[in-house]
Each structure stands twice: as C-alpha cells, then as structure tokens.
Amino acid sequence: MNLMASKKVLLTGGRGMVGRNVLEHPDAGRWNIVAPTSRQLDLTDFSATLDFLQLHRPDYVIHAAGKVGGIHANVREPVSFLLDNLDMGMNIVRASSQVGVRRLINLGSSCMYPRNQGEPLRENMVLTGELEPTNEGYALAKVITARLCDYLRREDASCQYKTLIPCNIYGRYDKFDPARSHLVPAIIHKIHEAQVNGRDTVEIWGDGLARREFMYAGDLADAILLAVEKFDSLPSYMNVGLGHDYTIDEYYQAAAEVMGYTGRFLHNLHKPVGMDRKLVSIERQMSWGWSARSDLRNGLDETYKYFLEKATNEL
To answer: Which residues form the catalytic set?
Structure first.
C-alpha cells in the first residue's frame, strides 16, 4: 500500500496556474489531493472555509490560491489585490489551525522582499525595507499571511505552518489576457499578435534592461510536492527559484526565437517597469536538496504550445 496515497492534501487554487501544474505533475497521484473550485470553497468566507476543513479534515494544506496579475492589474486594482489575498490567506490559515491541521504550506511571493536590492534576496530580508509600489497591496497580503503562520507556530510548536517564496512563475495555464498577465505571457501574446497582424515591431515597456527571474510552473509544482514529501525537513521560510535571471530584452529575444518572430523591438520609456532587479537566493533551497529542471527555452516552448492549443480560444 502507498502510505502517501492515504494522506489527504487540500490544495487551494486548484484551478489556477500553480494548482493545475501540481495536479498534472507525475507524482500528484501519490497523495489524495482535494482541489475545490472557488464555488465549492469560497476562501474569502471564513465560516465556509472552516466548514470545508471540518468536513474534509486534511493531513496537509497547500495554500496556492490568490488573486494575481501583472503591473496593469496591480496598479488598477490595489484594493482588491490587498483585501482578496489577505482574506484568503488569513481564512485558510486560521481555519486550518482551528480544526487541528498540523502541516500547512503557504505560498508567498518574491514581491514580499524590499525593492531595489542589488544582492540576491534572502529569506531573512522580509520586512527589512520598502516594498515595490506597483504591487504593494498584493505583497502586504502575502507578508501578513506568512507572519500569521509564524505566530501560530510560535504559540504552538505542533502547528507547523511553513512558507515557500517562489520567484516569478510562467507556464501552462498562465493568463495571457494583457489586462491581467505577467511579463512572460504578455510577451508571448504581444509577439503572437504581431505575427498574426503582420507587424514588424513589438513594443517593450522601459529600456529592457531590468532583470527578472521567471521559473517554469512545472518546476514549482515539483518543489511543492517534494515539500509535502519532505515536510519535516522543510525550512520555515524557503525561496524557490533558479538562482539566475535575465533582462527583459532577453526574455523578448528568447520568446521571439521560440515563436519564429523576426521583427524588431521598440522601447517605450514612458511606461512603468517596476523593480530594477528581483533575484532570490537559492542557498537554502539547494541545501534542502532541490533545483529547477527546465531551462528558459524549454519552458517557453511548452508555454507557447499551451498558448496555441488553449489560450488563444479564451482571448
């Protein structure tokens, strides 16, 4: 008998990009994963969240749900990015504690770190400086949820609630709508539109020199499932990333090569860019025993295939 298969895992955000990549991971069948839709579990409703947990009594909770979006959306809707994510995080953590769940993996975000740090972002740097204004609401919600996990663990050592802090993610099941997308899916959509419409130029926001670390979502799913398997050895805070980054120009160039686009790129210096650099330290991750498997070209290739098969029908 597979002992892991007898363990019940509640996965929030099972219809989001991270959740879907977890569910389609080859190792997902090793656990009994319950992944409700937002209609089945409204995480912004504490009573409904508590009732759901009391009914299912999971051995583990993976909190991957959240309202996410790129610079456009964060700047346009700061209130909902703060309140929706704060409600979801606080409710799932509090309810888990009340029903006796002892193992919870909370997904944070690298936007929890101070802006414009020249060195790789280490886990002890959370709350040591000013947050990036363009996504401050989302970042605050993530910081508070992570701190709540800390406080519960401080009051009750058996309440082992830990936070993974991924770098930026892209991949299958991403959002490609320009109003909601992050950098990589936005690049794929912009280049695709240029190809379809015969345009020989694509606009890049800013000078293209800002650096970003984007990891393929399938790799994050791999790290999450390993964290369930090796939960006891998992640090209370741990970055999940590549350990290296690329300029925005390099992401555009790599996507163009994958997609076969031969046009030119024009820089719009009047558009917001965000932080100059956001690279997480992977020292703790490497010591724990995990590293990402996908390189940029392979990840972009898989993401573009998904875009052509599925996402174009949704735009």
So the answer is: 138
